[in-house]
Design brief:
CATH architecture: Beta Barrel
CATH topology: Thrombin, subunit H
Shape: globular
Structural class: mainly beta
Strand order of the largest sheet: 3-4-5-8-7-6
Number of helices: 2
Length: 121
């Protein structure tokens, strides 16, 4: 699914959907977007973004502050933009878990190190 300029979801084929390779990783995440504060689980990540599984869904287009906790206990603070939520999916699969996609604003520092470590595994 991608979003049109007015943030409505449009469908693409599975091959077209993802521009960058995703890596499956389970990391705890805490987030704040506007008045929404919550926690979730990072399900996959790429060089530019990630998907967080959470019952709380921020608004698409909203800025978001994240703190990821790595397996070793390190904390990574990030800022980004909510790109989409599972609530926007026109025909969700029955077993689809709720969550949202985030585009990371700056992918340097600790996030880059985490991503590069995934490349080596």
């Amino acid at each position: 699914m991608v979003l049109s300029k007015d943030h409505r979801p449009t469908m693409r084929t599975a091959q077209d959907r993802r521009r960058l390779k995703r890596y499956v990783e389970r990391l705890d995440a805490h987030f704040q977007s506007g008045k929404i504060r919550g926690c979730g689980l990072v399900r996959n990540l790429s060089k530019e973004g990630l998907f967080i599984r959470s019952e709380l869904l921020p608004e698409p287009g909203a800025p978001i502050a994240l703190t990821l906790e790595t397996v070793s206990g390190d904390k990574i603070d990030l800022n980004g933009t909510v790109r989409w939520t599972t609530a926007q999916v026109p025909e969700p699969q029955e077993d689809m878990k709720s969550g949202f996609g985030v585009r990371i604003e700056v992918t340097g520092g600790a996030y880059r190190d985490l991503f590069e470590a995934l490349l080596l595994t």
